[in-house]
Amino acid sequence: xxxxxxxxxxxxxxxxxxxxxxxxxxxxxxxxxxxxxxxxxxxxxxxxxxxxxxxxxxxxxxxxxxxxxxxxxxxxxxxxxxxxxxxxxxxxxxxxxxxxxxxxxxxxxxxxxxxxxxxxxxxxxxx
Length: 127
Prior knowledge:
- By secondary structure, the chain is of the alpha+beta class.
- It has four helices and six strands; from the N terminus they run βααββββαβα.
- It has helices spanning 11-15, 19-38, 89-96, 114-122; strands spanning 2-10, 42-47, 55-60, 63-68, 76-85, 105-111.
- Strand 3 and strand 4 form a beta hairpin.
- The model has no long low-confidence stretch (mean pLDDT 87).
């Protein structure tokens, strides 16, 4: 089962770490990611730039509006996405509860709707 793990990070929490703490933390996270790889669970990871670099699009009253920054004012912003291959959602939760990133981020995990994804990815373009 493919599981998408959204990492919501408190950027201020990460920014408060010293350079050496940050380097040690990243090293620890990468080591755990390597364990996930070795065990066949790690599919792909995409880290995201700071939320200040985001744009949010909304459709309202027949128009698209573009806003700089994240969708909502909150301490936690999406910091990255990780695609896992696990037995089920509980197995994904078990794996990610051991990830060092849990100390600075919240992980939201959702199963991929593989049938819908396949349908969209194999659809023929309109004529």
